[in-house]
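User:
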Amino acid sequence: MKSSSIAIFASGSGSNAENIIRYCQSTHDCRITVALVICNRPNAGVVARAEALNIPVKVMTRDEINNPSIIIPTLEEYGVDAIVLAGFLLMIPGFLIDRFAGRIINIHPSLLPKYGGKGMYGRHIHEAVVAAGEKETGITIHHVSGECDGGEIIFQTSVELSSTDSAEDVERKIHQLEYLHYPQVIADTL
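Assistant: Predicted structure:
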């Protein structure tokens, strides 16, 4: 199988990005190399996490990410042939979706199509799941399309919830699923 050189796009604390990087660095048969982290927020935790693991980081504005004459040469400079989203809160521009067709993967902290779409990310989802009295929730790993939280589903798994689970409890359960499955699904898919 071919190896892939990926860029991780992240906006937040970077725990999923760090987990992916560590997996790729420590799993001897992993065909994935994390070449670059792109972040749209200069103070995001992912910046320090990636730098501590010796992964180059480029902090780019929304306008720079949406400008093909800036983002494409950056990705080419690092030999990127696939993109992984790990808590990235901006929509991916259409020209990147076209250029990396079938090679952009995202993870969503619900069982899509439930709790997907604009404004549904992180804690907002977990609060909605609790408010709805759901008996289970989970994660969805999917290819990125031009539709928010759209794209072909690659993998889903669920976890049971109790009636006493808070949004924080749900978040903790979701993070466990993400850490367990996302790196392996990336390695198997790209």
